[in-house]
Target: Putative secreted protein
Amino acid sequence: MKLLYYVLFLSVFIISCSDKLSPEETAYIKKIEEHRGQVNEFMKSDPRSPFNFKNKVEFHELNYFDVNPEFVFKSKLYEYPEKDTVIIYGTKGEPRETIKYGYVKFHYGGEEYKVNVYESTGSDGTKYYSIWFTDKTTNKESYGVGRYLDFEKQDDPNYIYTIDFNLAYNPYCAYNPNYSCAIPSKEDYIPLEIRAGEKKFHN
Model:
């Protein structure tokens, strides 16, 4: 009987230790949670938010997966030698031209994954860069159109980017049907459950 109690105690102790987070992970989780609080406040109160800007939409707090440090990766930006102009479509069916500029890559569960980075030009001529994707949670736990990640391109070709799926967010059309948002292509599908970032707003 004593041996049984010892085994049970040891099992609980091992599980407890494995659940402990490093100070860096604890600080990271706090940082992401604070960011989510700021996003909620913007969505609720700012006149530019999709809940307030066009037609008023009832607000409730955004839904998120638990913060998961395992879904933070580092990668260079690998430029395509030939940068093809491609057509993607908005959720209202309109075609949009964008340039398939390059990709980032990451390893998870022993597999390598690639995510495209697109270059677009705003109405003022400014170039901006985007990542949008779908994954195995799409249209189940996460938004059916897909999710986005901000990407700020650097001039240094050897710059190491942080690809943090805990910051993945829904486009504005997830909250307000007056908006049209870029639809990720079949090539932007990641065959993995990315249980990080924002979930569906409407269940």
Observations:
- Residues 23-45 form the longest helix (23 residues).
